[in-house]
Design brief:
- The structure is a single chain.
- This protein is of the alpha/beta class and 433 residues long.
- It folds into 3 domains: 197 residues, 3-Layer(aba) Sandwich (Rossmann fold), CATH 3.40.50.720; 82 residues, N-(1-d-carboxylethyl)-l-norvaline Dehydrogenase, domain 2; 135 residues, 3-Layer(aba) Sandwich (Rossmann fold).
- The chain is built from 17 helices and 14 strands.
- Strands 3-2-1-4-5-6 form a 6-stranded parallel β-sheet, with helices on both faces. A 6-stranded parallel β-sheet has the order 11-10-9-12-13-14.
- Helix 13 links the parallel strand 9 and strand 10.
- Helix 1 packs across helix 3, helix 5 packs parallel to helix 6 and helix 9 runs parallel beside helix 12.
C-alpha cells in the first residue's frame, strides 16, 4: 500500500518507518526543510533505540522517502496519516489543534480519488468531526473517510510497541476505510495483535483515558511512597504486594519524582479541559495533574533536606535529565523543576545525561554539563539521581565517595539499596523506604 505520513516527528517518523518495514511504500512529509535534509542524509531528529537502522535500511530499499512537498507526497496514497504535534495551548491547557487543522486543509486541496485520512496525533474528542468538516468544505467533491487511529508508543521502546502492540484501535463507521486499515495492519496479524474497531469519538477518547489511567497509577504509588516514609514501610514491597494482584498489575507502580514526557502532562490536562467543557468533570484526573506538578518541586526540598537544610553556595550533581531512560526528550521532565528549584535556593548545579544534554541546554541555563557521571559527581556536596539510565545502575560507589566533597546521595528512582550505601559510608535517601 502507498502511505503518506504528515509530520516526521516522534510519532510520524517511528510509524512511517515501521509501516515501510512491513513492506508498504511510505512518504514522510514535513515543513522543516532542515529536518528533511537531515533525514535524507540518515541523521535522526530524535534519539530512539533502533530507529536510525530502521529508517536508513528502509530508505535504502526505496520504501521510505522524505519530502517537504505535501501534494507530491500524498499523490496516490491510499492512507494519509496526520501525525503533527498537539501541544498544550498557552493560557488554557487545551490541546493546540492548529497544526492538525492546517494539515487537513492542505490535504483537502490535493485529494484525488478515495482516500482514508487517519488522525494519528493525540486529539480531543470531536477533532475527527472537525477534520472531516474542514476537508469537505474545502473540497466538496473529494471522496474520503476520516479515521481515528491513536498511537500507544512508549519512548525508548517505540519500535517494539508498534510492531508488537497490545492492541490497534481504529475509529471509523466507514466500511471502505475499515478495509483499508485492516489491510494496512495485516502484517501484524501473525503476531495476533487485536484490532479494536470503534466509533471515531470513542477511539479518540480511548487514547486520553489510557494515558490518564497510567498517570493516575504513577501518582497513586508516589503518594503511597510518601505515606511509607511517614510510617516506616517500604514502597517497593507495597508495589510488589499490590502488583501481584492481576486486577492491578505491576506496571507503572514504581515510585519516583513524578511523570513527565510528551504525553502524560499534556494529555491529562487536555482531558480535564475536554471534560469540563462537556460538563462531566474528571475530578480524579484533575487531582492527579495537580499532585504531579507539586511533587516535582517537592523533590528539590528532599535534596535540600539531605544537604543539611540549605544548598546556597553548594554544588549539586544531577544524574539524568530526560524524563525517562532511552530517549533525549526533555519535555516536562522532573529534572527541569528540580534543577530550577535548586537554583532558586542558591545551588550550583552540574549535570550529566547519556543522551539528553543538547535538549537540556535549550531549557536549563546556568548548569555545568559533564561528559560522564564521575565528572558530574566531582566536587559535589550532594548528588541526586533523577533518571534511571543503565549507566547509573552500577556506579563505583567507592570512587563516587572519593570524588564528592561530601558523600550524600538522593536516589529518586530507588536504584540502590540503603544497606549497601550505608556500608559504603554514603549518606543516602530514597523514595518511600
Amino acid at each position: 500500500m502507498r502511505v503518506a505520513m504528515i509530520g516526521s516527528g516522534y510519532v510520524g517518523l517511528v510509524s512511517g518507518a515501521c509501516f515501510a518495514d512491513f513492506g508498504h511504500d511510505v512518504v514522510c512529509v514535513d515543513k522543516d526543510p532542515g529536518k528533511i535534509e537531515r533525514l535524507n542524509a540518515g541523521v535522526m531528529p530524535i534519539y530512539e533505540p533502533g530507529l536510525e537502522a530502521l529508517v536508513t535500511g528502509n530508505a535504502r530499499a526505496g520504501r521510505l522517502t522524505f519530502t517537504t512537498e505535501l501534494e507530491a507526497g500524498i499523490a496516490g496514497a491510499e492512507a494519509i496519516f496526520i501525525a503533527v504535534g498537539t501541544p498544550s495551548r498557552r493560557g488554557d491547557g487545551h490541546a493546540d489543534l492548529s497544526y492538525v487543522y492546517a494539515a487537513a486543509r492542505e490535504i483537502a486541496a490535493a485529494l484525488k480519488g478515495y482516500t482514508v485520512i487517519v488522525t494519528k496525533s493525540t486529539v480531543p474528542v470531536g477533532t475527527g468531526d472537525e477534520v472531516e468538516r474542514i476537508i469537505r468544505e474545502a473540497n466538496p467533491q473529494a471522496e474520503f473517510a476520516v479515521v481515528s487511529n491513536p498511537e500507544f508508543l512508549r519512548e525508548g521502546a517505540a519500535i517494539g510497541d508498534f510492531k508488537r502492540p497490545d492492541r490497534i484501535v481504529v475509529g471509523t463507521e466507514d466500511a471502505r476505510a475499515r478495509d483499508v486499515m485492516t489491510e494496512l495492519y495485516r502484517p501484524l496479524f501473525l503476531n495476533q495483535s487485536p484490532i479494536l474497531f470503534t466509533g471515531r469519538r470513542t477511539a479518540e477518547l480511548i487514547k486520553y483515558a489510557a494515558n490518564a489511567f497510567l498517570a493516575t497509577k504513577i501518582t497513586f504509588i508516589n503518594e503511597i511512597a510518601d505515606l511509607c516514609e511517614a510510617v516506616g514501610a517500604d514502597v517497593q514491597d507495597v508495589s510488589r504486594g499490590i502488583g501481584l494482584d492481576n486486577r492491578i498489575g505491576s506496571k507503572f507502580l514504581h515510585a519516583g519524582p513524578g511523570y513527565g514526557g510528551s504525553c502524560f502532562p499534556k494529555d491529562t490536562l487536555a482531558l480535564v479541559k475536554t471534560a469540563q467543557d462537556a460538563g462531566a468533570p474528571v475530578r480524579i484526573v484533575e487531582t492527579v495533574a495537580a499532585v504531579n506538578d507539586q511533587r516535582k518541586r517537592a523533590m528539590a526540598k528532599k535534596v535540600i533536606a539531605a544537604a543539611g537544610g540549605a544548598v546556597r553556595g553548594k554544588t549539586v550533581a544531577v544524574l539524568g535529565l530526560t524524563f525517562k531512560p532511552n530517549t533525549d526528550d526533555m519535555r516536562d521532565s522532573p529534572a527541569i523543576a528540580i534543577i530550577q528549584a535548586l537554583q532558586d535556593a542558591g545551588a550550583n548545579v552540574q549535570a550529566f545525561d547519556p543522551e539528553g544534554t543538547e535538549q537540556a541546554k535549550l531549557v536549563l541555563h546556568d548548569v555545568t554539563y559533564a561528559a560522564n557521571p564521575y565528572e558530574c559527581l566531582t566536587g559535589a556536596d550532594v548528588a541526586v539521581l533523577v533518571t534511571e539510565w543503565d549507566a547509573f545502575r552500577a556506579l563505583d560507589m567507592d570512587r563516587v565517595k572519593s570524588l564528592m566533597a561530601s558523600p550524600v546521595m538522593v536516589d529518586l528512582r530507588n536504584v540502590y539499596r540503603p544497606d549497601e550505601m550505608a556500608r559504603r559510608g554514603i549518606a543516602y535517601s530514597s523514595i518511600g523506604r
